[in-house]
TrEMBL record:
Pfam families: RVT_1, zf-RVT. Residues 1-194 form the Reverse transcriptase domain. This is Reverse transcriptase domain-containing protein. Signal peptide: none annotated.
């Protein structure tokens, strides 16, 4: 919608309204009267009133609680009932806006498009789209005044902004009529810019990630803690952006670079970002590459578009594609960046959906992919389509709930394939269902994990690395063993290889040979003693061939001994690696020493906790 601001033709305005202390200022009497007017039972309204009016509060004065006092207005933030009640209050604002639109006091931007969208509300974030006539701006100001007087939700004029299209004249006068300041494009809503033309439009995302990682760097987090923060927080905020707009590739590269530098503390990247961004069973740590997440999010938007049933999908369908089928629509330069990306995702979406046939009236006979993941046009070719005519639906070859494909399929084999498709006569309208990898547990509902698995690059199964991941093992211990398996622990020989100056290359445990991963973990006399004890605990007489993979191979060969044995073996292996590495670092950076018996005791303690 906001993209239309850059197009010629008429004056356009977008008003971003901010409510002052939204939850804290709700008029409770107004809320209860509103619920009664909406048809809620009086007893139910009385119970709601009791819930919102009965709480009392105390305050700390010099560390001592004082009071209990009640409040006269507002809804408690954190109360699970409050969001629903606040939504009812905002519904009254919607009614006021609809009445103003119906009486033509306010003219929406797209009044000839169905559905008519005059405003959007998410909690207390309001966005109004209108033609900025003086009458309309004054009417919106009056609505906010009246709404604030009744509901208690006052407009924060200092934080509210109005955005005009470039062809709009008298912008200052129109903003004055509304009573808010003029803002500069691009418009941001819920923290996301609504129009993205260049990488600079997404600079706020890069700034957000940079502020977060700078704050985390001071927390002294472990390698595992840093990975978990990237996996949860950074992935969450970028996913929110991906489901709203198309983020440029340059911005994605900057965000990934910030995340990689944070994981490796700004030093050498022992493992590449591409390697980290693989599933654990394929040799990674479970992070997701952002360019792949962007593609999966785009497929999700395409799925929402064909499913319909939401305001976004209905509005997009009214704008794109016009007078043509979605599956046959060609990419036009006049389309938005988001819709162009949706169209490019059609081949991927086509392989992951299934058409459930009811009466066939809403399924295009030639263009919709209702034959598995193919359309009839793909199978028969353009010439056949021209002979039969466009615009036909599958109802043409369904009679009395039975397929009658004669005359449209041209081959007996294809006709038989069509007859095998089940027709469900219990409902009237054909529907799409999700049939991607995993398929959401077979429910037919969209599953983002399934969608991501559909678009990502698959790699060979890394059996050794996959074995170390399991429930109950501390993440920092798992990641230490993972780095050893990948040969990426920064031992002294690797530091020298990277050109770093170190005073001594000898192993700090035995002080005899140069330190390397092979020597430190399996060739050093100290660690040899530790591994001998661990092999005895594993009850098998496994040999040590100066390689962790030999131990892993032996464990996998004997994994069927009893249900808990494999878990204990995995924990014992990972804990041994962790405590050997920890002892090495303690001797280098702290100058303290733990005897082998103490290291063995620490290993046994971890095993008893993580695999009792």
């Amino acid at each position: 919608m906001v993209r239309e601001f850059s197009k010629p033709g008429g004056m356009k305005a977008c008003v971003k309204l901010d409510l002052r202390k939204a939850y804290d200022t709700v008029n409770r009497d107004f809320l209860c009267h509103l619920m009664l007017a909406m048809g809620f039972d009086a007893r139910w309204v009385a119970m709601v009133r009791e819930c919102i009016c009965s709480p009392t509060f105390s305050v700390l004065i010099q560390g001592t609680p004082h009071g209990y006092f009640s409040s006269n207005r507002g809804l408690r933030q954190g109360d699970p009932l409050s969001p629903y009640l606040f939504t009812l209050v905002m519904e009254y604002f919607t009614c006021m806006m609809d009445l103003a639109v119906h009486s033509q006091r306010i003219v929406p931007l797209f009044r000839l498009v169905s559905p008519v969208v005059s405003h959007l509300i998410y909690a207390d974030d309001l966005l109004v789209l209108l033609q900025p006539t003086m009458r309309g701006m004054s009417a919106l100001s009056d609505i906010m005044e009246e709404f604030g007087r009744l509901s208690g939700l006052q407009l924060n004029r200092e934080k509210s902004r109005v955005y005009f299209s470039s062809r709009c004249t008298q912008q200052e006068e129109r903003a004055y009529a509304l009573g808010v300041d003029r803002g500069e494009l691009p418009v941001k809503y819920l923290g996301v810019p609504l129009t993205v033309n260049y990488a600079r439009d997404c600079h706020s995302l890069v700034d957000f990630v940079q502020r977060r990682v700078e704050g985390w760097q001071a927390a002294g987090l472990s390698f595992g803690g840093r990975i978990e923060l990237v996996r949860s927080v950074i992935a969450g905020i970028t996913m929110f952006w991906f489901q709203s707009i198309q983020i440029p590739s340059a911005t994605i590269r900057k965000v990934e670079a910030l995340c990689a530098d944070f994981i490796w503390r700004g030093g050498m990247h022992a493992i590449s970002w591409d390697q980290l961004c693989r599933p654990r069973e394929e040799g990674g740590v479970g992070l997701r590459p952002l360019h792949t997440v962007r593609k999966a999010a785009c497929v999700k938007m395409a799925w929402r578009f064909i499913k319909g049933g939401s305001l976004w999908a209905d509005w997009m369908a009214s704008r794109y594609p016009r007078r043509t089928n979605f599956w046959a629509c060609r990419i036009d330069n006049n389309f938005s960046v988001t819709f162009k990306a949706i169209l490019r995702c059609r081949p991927v979406l086509q392989t992951a959906i299934c058409r459930h046939m009811k009466d066939g009236t809403t399924t295009d006979l030639w263009l919709d992919p209702w034959l598995g993941s193919r359309s009839l046009l793909e199978i028969l070719g353009e010439q056949m389509d021209r002979e039969a005519g466009r615009g036909l639906t599958c109802s043409r070859i369904i009679r009395d709930g039975v397929w009658r494909p004669e005359g449209y399929t041209y081959t007996a084999q294809l006709a038989e394939e069509i007859r095998l498709i089940t027709i469900d006569a219990s409902q009237a309208e054909d529907t799409w269902s999700w049939a991607g990898p995993g398929a959401g547990g077979g429910s037919g509902h969209f599953c983002f994990r399934s969608c991501y698995d559909l678009v990502r690059t698959h790699h060979d199964h890394a059996e050794e690395v996959d074995f170390i991941w399991g429930k109950g093992v501390a993440r920092k211990i798992q990641l230490c063993a993972y780095r050893l398996l990948r040969g990426r622990l920064m031992t002294r020989d690797r530091l020298l290889r990277f050109g770093m100056q170190i005073p001594d290359a000898k192993c700090v445990l035995c002080n005899v040979e140069d330190e390397s991963m092979g020597h430190l973990f399996f060739g050093c006399p100290v660690t040899w003693h530790i591994w001998t004890e661990q092999c005895a605990q594993l009850r098998g007489g496994v040999g040590i061939d100066r390689d962790i993979r030999s131990i892993l191979s032996w464990i996998r060969d004997h994994i069927g001994r009893d249900p808990g044995w494999a878990r204990r073996a995995r924990v014992r292996l990972a804990a041994s690696v962790w405590h050997i590495w920890k002892e090495r670092n303690r001797r280098i950076f702290e100058g303290s020493t733990t005897p082998p018996i103490g290291i063995l005791h620490n290993i046994e303690f971890d095993v008893s906790v993580m695999a009792p």
